[in-house]
Amino acid sequence: MWKKGGFGKLFVKKEGLESERDYLDLDIEKYEEELKEEEGVKMYIKTAELTGLYDVPELKKEIYAGNILILDISLAKQDKVLVEKAIKDLKMAAFDVGGDIAGVSDDQVIVAPTGIKIERKKLSE
């Protein structure tokens, strides 16, 4: 589980202050790799929004890192060409790593990494 002091690394207390508001919230991303090693985490499930093509490189980076993405495309749906181009790029990245990509709803897409396939049939069918 948590190693001693693992959670304590996420927050830093200002000298002489006592209430909850007196703590500084640190950026957890710089500790993700350390926590990943400490806990044996192999992948994360991450949520993201597609707002433009400039989001695609960061999303592809997550796919190549072996993470599962739940992608909200509702903000980009107004531009059909943008959505088609972005999904095509993400589909190529998913196939590059042996993963999978599928629409979950009209506004959501899930991208799975290596070794994970997405079942397209609903369980209730």
Describe the structure.
The protein has about 120 residues and is an alpha+beta fold. The chain has 2 domains: about 1-40, no CATH class; about 45-125, Translation Initiation Factor IF3. The protein contains 3 helices and 6 strands; from the N terminus they run ββαβαβαββ. The protein has a 4-stranded mixed β-sheet with strand order 3-4-6-5, with helices on one face. A two-stranded antiparallel sheet has the order 1-2. The mean pLDDT is about 80.
Q: What's a concise summary of this model?
A:
The chain is α+β, with helices and mostly antiparallel strands. It has 3 helices and 6 strands, in the order ββαβαβαββ.
Classified in CATH, the superfamily of the largest domain is SepF-like protein
Could you tell me the number of beta strands?
Answer: 6
Strand order of the largest sheet: 3-4-6-5
Can you tell me the residue ranges where pLDDT is under 50 for at least 5 consecutive residues? none
Overall tally of domains: 2
The appropriate CATH architecture of the largest domain is 2-Layer Sandwich
Distance between the termini: 38 Å
Number of helices: 3
Features of this protein?
alpha+beta; Translation Initiation Factor IF3; four-stranded mixed β-sheet
Question: SSE layout and pairings?
Answer:
Elements: E1 11-13, E2 23-25, H1 29-39, E3 45-49, H2 56-64, E4 68-72, H3 80-96, E5 100-103, E6 108-112
Parallel strand pairs: 3-4
Antiparallel strand pairs: 1-2, 4-6, 5-6
